[in-house]
Write a structure and sequence with these properties.
This protein has 4 domains: 96 residues, Arginyl tRNA synthetase N-terminal domain (Gyrase A, domain 2, 2-Layer Sandwich); 163 residues, HUPs (Rossmann fold); 73 residues, no CATH class; 117 residues, Isoleucyl-tRNA Synthetase, Domain 1. Helix 5 links the parallel strand 5 and strand 6. Helix content is 50%, strand content 13%. By secondary structure, the protein is an alpha/beta fold.
Length: 560
Amino acid sequence: MANLIQDAFGQVRELVMNALGVCIRDGIFPAEPINPFNVERPADPKNGDVSTNAAMVCAKAFRSAPRKIAEEIVAKIDLGETYFEKCEVAGAGFINFFFASSWYGEVVKAVLDEKENYGSTELGKGKSVLVEFVSANPTGPMHIGNARGGAIGDCLSAVLEKAGYNVAREFYVNDAGNQIEKFKTSLEVRYLQIYKPETELPEDAYQGQDIVEHAKAFNEVYGDKYVNADSEERRQALCDFALPKNIQTLHDDLSKYRINYDKWFTESSLHKSGAVKEIVEKLKESGYTYELEGALWFKSSELGDEKDRVLVRANGVPTYFVPDIAYHYNKLVTRGFDKAIDVLGADHHGYVPRMKAALKALGVDENRLDVVIMQMVRLVRDGEVYKLSKRSGKAITLATLLDEVPIDAARFFFNLREANSHFDFDLDLAASESSQNPVYYVQYAHARICSILAKAKEEGIEIGSNADLSVLSTSDEQELIKFIATLPDAVNDAAKNYDPARMTRYVIELATLYHKFYNNCRIIGESSEIMQARLTLCLAVKQLIFNILTMLKVTVPEKM
């Protein structure tokens, strides 16, 4: 898979090393080791397309002025069959290289040859990654934080796949523990209130209308059968009735949001398999536990956590921390993923060091677990913070958000900023059809290209595969092509930094550069040679927009 930026960097490094070798052979410079030097893209295009500080790095060893060294290097460089038409010395001793027209043609050709694979890399070749995200509490509907986490987790997974990783998406269902006991209590009270209205709902119970609806639906099926039953039997029956419905709703809402998981992993399966008990025994064997007042404690403070943590309470019931440890052990050891990535809310900062401490105690490299911490999102309408759904008058959930704004906008907007930044989601902007709406702006660039290609077809213009791309010589054309060439590096950067927002920003800039090119460079109506080259460039941009939006699971309309 082509990466013509890195190929060009490699050529510069080779050209400079060869020239230095000649200089040393000819006695111009002493035979001293050559320290590593930088090859990079200059911030200012006036300074060339690729630049190196090799002469500056060699100054001390060669006991010579950097500019003099640079001049000697340039004098020995033969650009020959390279991507460059010229190189020159600048400033105190930088050497700047300028792309030949053939390089620009190679970039466009690479896109059209590789099609949907253009931008794919081998950064993660042979490595498996498990990305766990959303994992919302199944006792209620998903909130706006889950909506952001879903978009970030799913798009991060797609970026990692594009970078060559073998990726699995997973939802962890917390179907055991305290929140399920509270769920049972809440359902039980609401059910009993149908027959005994005086039954009081505890303050810490779930207050939502969804609990009331579950109790009514249960009653429609079973009537008063469980009113006088044993409390635990009643609670379990209610939970067995309501919880699967909630989990199915999670499935349905996430599927509508274009998120499909490879596995829904249940916490209860860890208890049933004995994995929770096993992890307690393994931690005891590690030597990092002790007993205090009847409880079993983990010496996590000795392994980077701020304090020690309770593993098993004095009543013999494990804390929620234990199944979480068992789950991560299952990911990294039992199933053997090379890397586990958790996408978690901002309130989980303290969770990271304690989980890494547990992995260390279990003999697992804690660096195999990475956590993406996601900050809060605020919904904004008419410039004001917006918390209620116009339809129900209740707090907006993922389901109600998708009634308010298009799915394309929701997925795209939640990936406009890196996960660790606070984000205001503008509902009015997301629903608008204007160039101010970034997803609409990008989709419009794709539709505009489709319109141009359709017009060319109507006029009987065939877009040949043999266009002379060397005529793409204007600054707008070359700026656009140089940006196209950076997609593989952008994919790698997004994957390395777990930041899919880099891809949304990339495609917005791509659309901006395309619109600029379109406004400044006539396409249909130019000479046949230039028209064919520009239509071919349009095809390449169309392919790139398709590749990125498809990766983000955003639709790619041909007409708007």
